[in-house]
């Protein structure tokens, strides 16, 4: 491979032999092996566009067709080391769709001073977001408008700030970061953008004037952070700016998309368990360098799962690591929902605690959306659309429940847990805790709980339980009984005696197969203490107890309970149930 070993650059000198960059300001950042090899190869072929395939083959030794992301990542790291943040252009130029070109020092034009960029640069590492950052880099190369969506606290702002840190030398027209967390009107949006552009607002047609100002900047990057409360108010304004400033790039962060034709979306989700644990350890050691906890610690894994693997929640927890272990934090979080509150004054108010973050999200909803979300809090372990439609009671509104549910998903307040039939939905723990508080404060709370138990009681009937064992829908119904076990358990504590009993029967049908068996037995014994049960219901409860006693080889007690069950079934006029119970007695006699 043809390379050179010493390369003079605008900001210093690259010594490829010792893999170090001698910066003009005295810094000596090290070059990784592949950074040195790539820079050497590019410098050996000045002013020539080197195709991606050639770089992969001659620098990395990869065959054709390998992922180009490795090149882009290495170039970005090189640019951070060798480029001057205050000037443009630099030595490494990308040629869209083709490759990269190196321009030697002698061929560079005089540096062009960029407009100062008031960007809150990130001093901390970005963990678990490499793929999202690569995707954001790639999209801003080609797409005029990119929106990063996701729930509050998932790290949208941090992601775009890292993008700005890595690309603010790419745009001759400058980069701008506009915090819109306090903006609720077009006028406030215009004021914030005008302040970022350092221009006075005209009296007339302000949106057009700002669009013209953006267009005059040529290749620039404008980040509009926390746009969610302005989507209905001002999405059309962004569309006009994108159409006018064709050389610019616009990146939005929002909990919902702008629904514009030119918009490209990146949806951020919570971190993986491993990355979440690494983030906790990294942030905790910034405050307590001698902290001994490791990322694979069992208590830490459980804690980050409890925090839904949300970066904000994890950083707030890590700030308490000098005072509390992960195990202690887990215990306290169950009784102190506002335990994770930041004392850092540089955090926005909405990020000072988890509760503030969730409250901010709920304040963006209209009354009907918020009403439905609060009623979603009645479900435990997730829910299906038919369950929500049966349980929710909404004021007169032209929208259907599924439409409002779609809105809640777009706001990242409800998530899709499984796309299998039927599709299951749920909420992150940090959101559900807050929503349940809102549910418990409602005057119609007991009515919602009763409707919940009434819906899930249908899964405790003999016919449904039988259909989960045999029949054309057995696989689907069996999975339903597995997925909704926690809802059955909850219904057994909430409904009328009849509904509670049938929810208990549904839970028993599952627990008697998988355990805990003591819980299964207790559910049935609790049913038998209820007043006002129909004889049929009590007979079947006794039948379930009879079956469990048989499995425990308590034959005499099983025969006694079975005789009571048969008598009640006959009294209820249920010959089929009586026959089934009699058959169980016959089985007991054979033991």
Can you give keywords for this protein?
591 residues; alpha/beta; five-stranded parallel beta sheet; three-stranded antiparallel beta sheet; 26 helices; 16 strands; 51% helix; elongated
Describe the structure in your own words.
- By secondary structure, the protein is α/β, with parallel strands linked by helices.
- The chain is 51% helix and 10% strand.
- The chain has a five-stranded parallel sheet with strand order 10-11-12-9-13, sandwiched between helices. It has a three-stranded antiparallel sheet with strand order 1-2-3, covered by helices on one side.
- Helix 24 (535-551) runs antiparallel to helix 25 (555-571).
- It is elongated, with a radius of gyration of 31 Å.
Tally of contiguous helical segments: 26
Helix content: 40-55%
Shape: elongated
Distance between the termini: 83 Å
Strand fraction: 5-15%
Q: Classify the oligomer.
A: single chain
Q: Any low-confidence stretches, pLDDT <50, length ≥5? A: 85-89, 110-118, 342-352
Radius of gyration: 31 Å
Q: Output the structural class.
A: alpha/beta
Itemize the secondary structure elements and their pairings:
Blueprint: E1 6-9, E2 12-15, E3 20-23, H1 33-43, E4 49-51, H2 52-60, H3 69-82, E5 87-88, E6 92-95, E7 99-102, E8 112-113, H4 130-142, E9 145-149, H5 156-167, E10 175-179, H6 186-197, H7 206-216, E11 221-225, H8 231-244, E12 249-253, E13 263-267, H9 273-287, H10 298-306, H11 311-318, H12 326-333, H13 354-363, H14 367-376, E14 383-384, H15 385-391, H16 401-410, E15 415-418, E16 424-426, H17 429-440, H18 445-456, H19 462-467, H20 474-483, H21 485-491, H22 497-514, H23 517-528, H24 535-551, H25 555-571, H26 575-590
Parallel strand pairs: 9-12, 9-13, 10-11, 11-12
Antiparallel strand pairs: 1-2, 2-3, 4-7, 5-8, 6-7, 14-16, 15-16
């Amino acid at each position: 491979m043809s390379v050179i070993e010493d390369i003079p650059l605008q900001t210093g000198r690259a010594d490829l032999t010792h893999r170090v960059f001698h910066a003009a300001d005295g810094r000596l950042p090290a070059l990784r092996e592949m950074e040195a090899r790539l820079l050497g190869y590019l410098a050996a072929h000045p002013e020539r566009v080197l195709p991606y395939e050639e770089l992969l083959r001659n620098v990395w030794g990869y065959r054709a067709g390998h992922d180009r992301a490795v090149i882009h990542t290495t170039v970005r790291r090189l640019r951070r080391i060798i480029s001057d943040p205050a000037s443009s252009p630099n030595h490494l130029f990308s040629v869209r769709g083709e490759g990269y070109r190196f321009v030697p020092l002698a061929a560079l034009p005089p540096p062009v001073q960029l407009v100062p960029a008031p960007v809150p640069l990130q001093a901390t590492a970005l963990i678990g977001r490499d793929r999202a950052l690569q995707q954001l880099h790639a999209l801003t190369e080609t797409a005029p408008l990119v929106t990063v969506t996701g729930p509050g606290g998932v790290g949208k702002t941090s992601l775009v700030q890292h993008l700005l840190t890595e690309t603010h030398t790419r745009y001759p027209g400058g980069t701008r970061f506009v915090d819109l967390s306090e903006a609720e009107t077009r006028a406030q949006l215009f004021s914030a953008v005008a302040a970022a552009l350092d221009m006075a607002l005209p009296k007339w047609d302000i949106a057009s004037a700002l669009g013209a100002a953006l267009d005059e900047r040529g290749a620039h990057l404008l980040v509009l952070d926390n746009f969610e409360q302005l989507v209905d108010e001002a999405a059309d304004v962004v569309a006009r700016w994108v159409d006018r400033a064709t050389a610019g790039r616009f990146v939005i962060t929002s909990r919902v998309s702008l629904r514009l034709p030119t918009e490209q979306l990146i949806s951020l989700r919570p971190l993986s368990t491993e990355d979440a644990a690494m983030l906790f350890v990294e942030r905790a050691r910034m405050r307590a360098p001698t902290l001994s906890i490791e990322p694979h610690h069992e208590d830490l894994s459980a804690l980050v799962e409890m925090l839904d693997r949300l970066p904000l929640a994890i950083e707030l927890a890590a700030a308490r690591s000098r005072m509390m272990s992960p195990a202690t934090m887990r215990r306290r979080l169950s009784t102190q929902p506002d335990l994770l509150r930041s004392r850092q004054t540089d955090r926005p108010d909405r990020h000072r605690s988890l509760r503030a973050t969730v409250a901010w999200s709920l304040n963006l909803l209209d009354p009907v959306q918020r009403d439905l979300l609060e009623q979603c809090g009645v479900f435990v372990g997730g829910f299906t659309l038919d369950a929500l439609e049966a349980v929710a009671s909404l004021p007169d509104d032209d929208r259907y429940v599924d439409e409002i549910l779609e809105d809640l998903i777009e706001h990242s307040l409800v998530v899709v847990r499984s796309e299998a039939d039927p599709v299951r939905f749920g909420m992150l723990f940090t959101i559900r805790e807050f929503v349940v508080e809102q549910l418990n404060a409602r005057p119609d709370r007991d009515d919602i709980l009763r409707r919940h138990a009434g819906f899930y009681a249908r899964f405790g009937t003999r016919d449904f339980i039988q259909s989960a064992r045999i029949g054309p829908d057995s696989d689907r119904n069996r999975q339903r009984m597995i997925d909704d076990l926690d809802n059955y358990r909850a219904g057994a504590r909430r409904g009328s005696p009849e509904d509670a009993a049938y929810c208990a029967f549904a839970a028993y049908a599952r627990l008697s197969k998988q355990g805990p068996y003591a819980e299964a037995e207790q559910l049935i014994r609790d049913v038998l203490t209820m007043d006002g049960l129909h004889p049929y219901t009590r007979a079947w409860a006794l039948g379930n107890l009879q079956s469990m006693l048989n499995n425990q080889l308590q034959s005499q007690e099983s025969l006694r309970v079975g005789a009571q069950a048969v008598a009640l079934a006959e009294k209820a006029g249920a010959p089929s149930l009586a026959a089934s119970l009699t058959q169980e007695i016959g089985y007991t006699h054979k033991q």
